[in-house]
Amino acid sequence: MNAEAAVFYVFGAITVLSAAVVVLARSLIYSAFALLFTFFGVAGLYVLLGADFLAATQLLIYVGGILVLLLFGVMLTHKLYDLDLRSEVTQFLAGIIVASGLFVIVIFVAVRTQWATGPGRPPSVTTAEVGRLFMGQYLLPFEAASILLLVALMGAAMIVRRRRDA
Predict the structure, then answer these.
(1) Are 82 and 1 in the same domain?
(2) Is residue 48 part of a domain?
(3) Does 111 have pLDDT greater than 70?
(4) Last residue of one domain, picked from the residues 87, 116, 132
(5) Do 58 and 3 sit in the same domain of this protein?
(6) Domain coverage including residue 71
(7) Is residue 119 part of a domain?
(8) For the chain, how many structural domains are there in total?
(9) pLDDT tens-digit series, residues 74-100
């Protein structure tokens, strides 16, 4: 096993194990901190794929923005400490059956697929090419997505600010 495969398995293990902690932890704080390691693992996998722009975006947006916002929201909200977040109806058996079925399908597809092997392509910087595509060929979809996100943000703010007169 070469060094790149070993690094891939380390990042894969970090991502999967911390994602399991996110789902299975009883404490919201533990889940949020495990989510930090999940985001770092995914960023590491992006680096191994040669997608430096996606890795930097993963770190800046998810770790730097969303996770910090989530942690501040959890730590500054006093009402969440006494709140039981478990749902009343737990369908554990159905969830295990569905998850196991999906796992078998994924393993079956992974085993049956002819994967390309070989030396691969040399790493190259992708940030400049992504910037050229965003400001050239994909300018209209990029701006449409930004307007859609702005409208969604404004809608979320309107929902939060709405007064309950009932």
Answers:
(1) yes
(2) yes
(3) yes
(4) 87
(5) yes
(6) 1-87
(7) no
(8) 2
(9) 776 655 555 555 555 677 788 889 989
Question: Cα dihedral sign for 23, 26, 31, 33?
Answer: negative
Both 1 and 83 in a single domain?
yes
Residue 39's Cβ-count burial label (10 Å; 0-12, 13-18, 19+) is buried
The full length of the chain comes to: 166
| 74, amino acid identity | V
Instruction: Determine which helix (DSSP H) or strand (DSSP E) holds 72, and give its type and residue range.
Output: helix 68-76
The residue type found at 144 is A
| pTM for the full predicted model | 0.61
Give the residue with greater pLDDT, 164 vs 112: 112
In whole angstroms, give the CA distance from residue 41 to residue 48: 11
Token pair, residue 118, equals 């070989």
What's the pLDDT band for 13 if we cut at 50, 70, 90?
A: very high
